[in-house]
Amino acid sequence: MPQPVVLTGERVTLSTPALADIDRIAELCTDPAIARWTTVPSPYERDHAVAFVTSVVPDGWASGRVCTWAIRFRDVLVGMISIADIHERQGEIGYWLAPEARGQGVMSEATELVLDYGFGRAPHGLALTRMVWRALAGNAASAAVARRAGFRWDGVAPEGAEQRGARFDEWRASLLPGTPRESAGDWPDISYVQAAL
């Protein structure tokens, strides 16, 4: 099973969220855009952050199915990023970012670190052979991050996503280890519509 690991880039550091992060996580997850585009509970309460830090994150690492990191920019927690649903050498990347950190390349740097770890050879990586990205249709900010990271467009899954008991259309893309980490030109125009991450 993978052990929690710290990933360090030029401007961001990724580490497992700790007890000291609970109040910050609870604060950030009340952001309307995070509630709109992710599956975090809404309304988000402090107890949700407690459960996330003390149970969800450590259980994910212990099971080998989910690796979750807090994104720290200038020593402040500004978001989360994870590789989830790890099985048969495939994983799914997911992320959210605080409003004040958007538009500065923070998520793109964090994504590169996580992809390097996901595709990296064991024991210093997960040795995955495929990474998938999924988002609610319309989440163009998340799509922009995935597109810049080299993900290739796979299409739209009608009602492929479930969020708080309702079903929505879902955008999907994927990335293989040998795919160039540069913007792909196969994404449809609809994925470029401006939206908040």
Describe the structure.
The protein is α+β, with helices and mostly antiparallel strands and 197 residues long. The protein has a single domain, classed as Gcn5-related N-acetyltransferase (GNAT) (Aminopeptidase, 3-Layer(aba) Sandwich). Helix content is 27%, strand content 31%. It is built from five helices and eight strands; from the N terminus they run E-E-H-H-H-E-E-E-H-E-H-E-E. The protein has helices spanning 22-28, 32-37, 46-63, 106-119, 140-148; strands at residues 7-8, 12-15, 67-73, 76-87, 90-97, 130-136, 152-163, 166-175. Strands 1-2-3-4-5-6-8-7 form an eight-stranded mixed beta sheet, sandwiched between helices. Helix 1 (22-28) packs across helix 3 (46-63). The longest helix has 18 residues, at 46-63. The chain is globular, with a radius of gyration of 16 Å. The protein starts with 6 loop residues before the first strand and ends in a 22-residue tail after the last strand. The mean pLDDT is 93.
